[in-house]
Design brief:
mainly alpha, 2 domains, flat
Amino acid sequence: MDSQKLKEMGAAEVVWLATHLSGKKRRHIEEALELVPGQIDRWSSRKDHHTPSLEVLPELIEATTTGRDAGENVIIQWLLARVNDQNLKYDPKAMAIEEMERQLLHLGADFGSVAQCVIEAGADRKVSRAEAMRIKNAVANIMGRCQDVLTGVEPYI
């Protein structure tokens, strides 16, 4: 969807569009998120002025994502379009070499944590929702640490 159109949409329109594009019935999404019946209709109404809380937003994105790529979800695209529209500037500070070395050493431990999560989850040859979240969180920690190193690789004078 066009970034300009997304920026102009309100939260209610985006919730409506996300549920519509998911191809799922609203009541099924509400059941999956353990919401009260009609909650998505309230979030989708321009008159009601209710929006999903930050706590439920990741679950709503997951419930309305088709396929495996959450980046394709219209809610994420809308958030990115709105953030990019604010012309936010990020000026990373260069990371001292000692800090970079420390971060890279911690990555080894982080990879060990992911491996341990996978081993534990694979013990019964099934991955539960809780185990999947632990694995995702462990991988996200690695990604965050890598991002810190990437943004810190600047000439340090």
